[in-house]
Backbone:
């Protein structure tokens, strides 16, 4: 079991950049979890943004953010980052990081999921607001 905590949200003008951080703590080594970022804007469904495998070897992005966002992790520091560049007003949402256990005994090192209900552990979310 792990606990996740996001930070780094805020208000930014369109075209600007923000970096979100997700701290992962718990008794199970955080490096055994794949991590994804999801977001939810008011009145909309939660949507996948980006994912990174437990080793960091594989990443994936929603089409809406591909080329603008990058995701990385530092397993020595138990942190996952979402770097968001060229922000648009439509990126405004609450951003959540989520973790799914993907230990090497059962999962390939590049495993990740884009499906929110695959993830067992969630942070509290951080608000990102992009003004035009």
Residues:
């Amino acid at each position: 079991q792990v606990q996740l905590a996001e930070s780094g949200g805020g208000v930014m003008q369109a075209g600007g950049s923000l970096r979100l951080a997700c701290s992962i703590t718990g008794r199970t080594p955080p490096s055994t979890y794949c991590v994804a970022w999801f977001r939810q804007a008011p009145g909309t469904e939660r949507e996948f943004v980006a994912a990174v495998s437990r080793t960091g070897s594989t990443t994936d992005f929603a089409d809406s953010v591909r080329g603008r966002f990058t995701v990385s992790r530092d397993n020595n520091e138990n942190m996952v980052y979402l770097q968001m560049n060229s922000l648009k007003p439509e990126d405004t949402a609450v951003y959540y990081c989520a973790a799914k256990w993907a230990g090497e005994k059962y999962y390939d090192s590049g495993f990740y999921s884009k499906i929110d209900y695959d993830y067992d552990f969630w942070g509290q979310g951080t608000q990102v607001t992009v003004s035009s």
About this structure: The chain has no helices and eleven strands.
